[in-house]
Structure formats: C-alpha cells, structure tokens
Amino acid sequence: MSSEAAAAPPRPLAKRILGETPSAWVFVAPAAVIIVGLAIVPIGWSLVLSFRASDLLSPGHSVGFANYDALLDDPDLRSAVGHTLVFTGLFVPLSIVFGLLLAIALNRPIRLIGFYRTAILLPFIASTAVQGVLFSYIFDERFGVANAVLDKLGIARQGFLGDPDQALLVIVLIALWGGVGFSVIIYLAALQDVPRDLVDAARVDGAKRLGVLRHVVLPQLMPVTVFLVIWQTLLSLQLFDLVYATTRGGPLDSTVVVVYYVYKQAFVLFNAGYAAAVAYVVAAFLIALACLQILYRRLSARHA
Amino acid sequence: MRERALPFSPWHLLLAPAAILFALPFAWMVLSSFMSNAQINHFPPTIIPDSLHVVGWDHVLRRATFPSWFVNSMIVASVTVVSNLVFCSLAGYAFARLRFRGSSLLFALIIATLIIPFQLTMIPTFIVMERLNLVDTLAALIIPGLVTPLGVFLMRQFFVSLPREVEEAARIDGCSRLGVLLHVAIPLARPALATLAALTFLISWNDLLWPVIAINSDETFTLPLGLTTFQGQHTQDWAAVMAGNVITAVPVVVAFLLAQRTFIESLTSSAVKG
C-alpha cells in the first residue's frame, strides 16, 4: 500500500494494523455498522430464510428448495408479475416521452416559466400516500369529480379504481401524474448541458427545429435516457405505495403487484420463508438491471 | 426572426394546460377540505364552496390523531436528517481524505448496497426490530435510515472535489482531523449538506412501505401511514380525508417552494449513483 513506509521509522502497532489513520475508523464506524448491519446482514439472512418454512416470529424449519419450487407454479404470483409488467410497460415509456416533452418546453425562456416548472414538479414532491388518497377521492365512483365531468359530457360513469378492468390503468395514470416530474428534472438538467454552439452550428447549417432536436439534441440526451429507462423500470417493478394507498390490491386482486404480494405473504399471511424466496428472485432481476446501467455507464465513459 | 401567428410563445399552449393538469388536483384537495360533506355529495360538485366549512378540519384536528401523527413524522424526519448530516459527513470525509486499512473495500461495500432493493432486506430488518423489541416504536422507523449509502457517496464526492491546500494549511496550524472537518471542510460543504438534508427529508417524510410493516398502533403512525389508514376507515367523509391530506402534503410542499433549487439539485444528484 504505502511505498514510503520502507524508509520510515517503524510505526506503532495500531497504525500498522489499522493503517495511516486509525481514527478514521471512528469516522466511518456509525455508517459501517448501520449499512452493513441493516443491508449486508439481511441479504444473507433473507437467503437463509428463503430455504425455511418460517412464520416471521419463530425460526421455523428447513424445507430445502420447496419455496422456490412453489413459486414456479403459483398462479397468484404469476398474475402479480403480469400486473407489474403491464404497469412497467405503460409507465416507463410514457413517463419518459412526457418527461422529455415537458422538459423541452420548460427549457424555453418564456414568461411564467417559473410558475409552470413549480406546478409541474409539485406532484412529484408529494408523498405517494398523498397522491393515492387524493386520486381515490377524484376517481371515487359516487362522489368523485371525474365521474361528475363524464356526466356533464354525457359519457357513462366509470368504475375507475373500483372496476377490475380499469383499476391498474388508473394507477398508471396516477403514477404518471406523480412520477413524470423525475424525468422532467433529469431531462431539464441534461438539456442545460447540451452545448449551445452545437445547436447553433446545426442552425447555421440550415437545420430546422425538429431536425436539430432529432439529430443534435436527442443523441446528446441518449445516456440520460438510458439512465431514466432503467431507473423508472426499477421503480415500477418495485411499485407498492401507490397500490397500498389506493386499492390495496383489489378489486378482485386486479392490482396486486409483486412487492405487494411479497408484503402480503410476509406480513399478512406470515409465510416469511416463501416471501423471502419471492423477494430473492425479484431482487435478482432488479440487481441484474441495475448492473446493466452501471455497465452501460462504464462502456459509454470509455467511448467518450 | 420568424413571423408569429400568436401574440405569445406557442409553448404556452402546451405548458399552461399541463401546469393546470398537475396543479388542479392539489387545488381541489384544499377546496374540498373546506366543503361540507353535503357539498361534496352534491352532484355535480360545487366548484367553489359558497361558505367555508371546517367540519373536516375539526374532525381531523380534534377527534382524530392527526396532530400526533404530524409530531411523529416530524420527529422521525428531523432525527433522520440530522443523523445523516453528521454520519454521512464523517464517513464521506474519511473515505475522501483519510487513508486507513480496508477503506476501499468498505466503500465498495457501501456503494454496492445502493442497488439492493428494499423488499429483499425488509423481512430480516423486521425480524431484527422484533428481536430488539423495537417494533411499533419510532426507533424502528429511525434506525434503518440513520445513515444512507447515497448520503455517504454524495459527501465523499463533495469532499474529494475540495482543494486539499485549504485543509493542509489548517493541519500545519495544528488542527486535528476532526478540527479540520468541523472548522474548514464543513463550512465549505454547506450546499452539499443542504442537498443531502432535502433528499433525506423527502425520503423519510414520504416513506410508506416501512411504516406499514413496522408500526401497528394508532399513536405511533406517521402521517402517510395514518392518512391511508384514516381514509380506509372514513370512506364517506371526504372533507376530513382531504383535510388530513393537506396536513400530510403541506410540510413537503412548503419546503419545496422555499428551497426549490436545493430540492431539484438533490433529486438530480440522486441520479449520479451507480
């Protein structure tokens, strides 16, 4: 490690064991204890748990791969995965397209822009519980303003969150209202980093507005877009709060998503071992996805 | 200059409806909290309450536990923010400036935990809290968030970017490591600390999944948990539910309006992880 140590006088034992600055351990100890204790240890613990039949409060007994076998043909889990994928497939592309559109608009130096930006970002800052409860009210079948508007327009009233065919789609809508702000913030920051002279040069060469957007701005935004796709996908696959604050999985289990299913198995039905197995499989996918993002970053950094 | 058909920028045509779409539900929330339930049940809804009604607010403030949920949320969020500021600064500074055995391994470990999804750790974390007899206490909500890996990462990045010379001058003047951190580095780190504070406040205040798991009695609820539970119990009392919703939303909204730049920065910085 330290090449100058050879010439230096022998160091005290503590320094030889702990490094140049033993006091540094005092600096990092709280962070190390909390993060290792409440992240690294639980990862191992979850793995052990996933091979046991445990009811959360007693240690239970080992069941080998039974939990993993069970999850392969669990129809409830399969439909939870289906709901999660439908949500992700709709939310991710829409949040990115709308996010980009709004960010481009908000990047203009026009009047009222500060007001527009605040209004558009506000929902994202609010708690998901606030968003969910607010839209449970707006989409309430009897008293909600959404059905009142439909009535005025002469359209039939809808069940919204109370209708098994619509509930998941309504949750996508609420998630977009509350989640598009993140895409806007990230794209706004990235747009400000697009070199001005690049845009000007393209304009001088006779490129039209849309041409500049397509051939100059969008390629510059590519790394940010990849980041957003992966980030929003990770968030979507972990959807819980909004479901809890609106439908709690209903009606007729039509909005049970994977994390909600894990929560229900572990903390409502007390199948902690099984829940841990499901969580492990899901986490493996999520971690693989996150690694993809890191890999992409490394690769594009090398080419830059 | 291109000739214009409109007396204003055409971008207003996109932004004005968008801003209304995003802000209107909040306005509706505030208005509804001042309606009587008769007005809410009246169809079509009265858009402007002809007179202010405070039944909803009265219910929420006098007969429900919202005030103590507010206090609980404040306690959890402020302890979390302060402890993150202290411990993430200490750890971040050590990783940036001090040489100690195992430092790169430990830092890699901390960064690796950034990509671990919470649902993987929540079951054992609950069991740990159960063993420590902390389930259903505010401590159970505070402890897992005392130090966040992202915070350690952000503070380390900040301290690495500081010029060493300033600190070295203080060292020569006989300042200890802790002295340098307290008197030289921390004052320079104010913007980074503000960013970290905004981020931890948001995450802590808005959290729902962990309180749902760790808390089960009414008097220990945080606002998001209390709000969703209250709504489940009072599905016909929308004025009261919206008053509770306003209480839950207001602290974050006010903080955002006061320090918009800091919040936006903190959200952008969360994107640098990984």
Spell out the key features of this protein.
heterodimer; A: 304 residues; mainly alpha; MetI-like fold; two-stranded antiparallel sheet; B: 274 residues; 72% helix; 0% strand
Amount of helix of chain B = over 70%
In angstroms, what separates the terminal alpha carbons of chain A? Answer: 31 Å
What is the count of structural domains of chain B? 1
* SS-derived structural category of chain A: mainly alpha
Q: Could you say what the CATH architecture of the largest domain in chain A is?
A: Orthogonal Bundle
Shape of chain B: globular
- CATH 4th-level superfamily of the largest domain in chain A: MetI-like
How does the major sheet of chain B shape up? none
One letter per element, helices H and strands E, the order of chain A comes to HHEEHHHHHHHHHHH
Low-confidence stretches of chain A: 1-7
Strand order of the largest sheet of chain A: 1-2
Figure out the total of helices of chain B.
15
Contiguous uncertain segments of 5+ residues of chain B: none
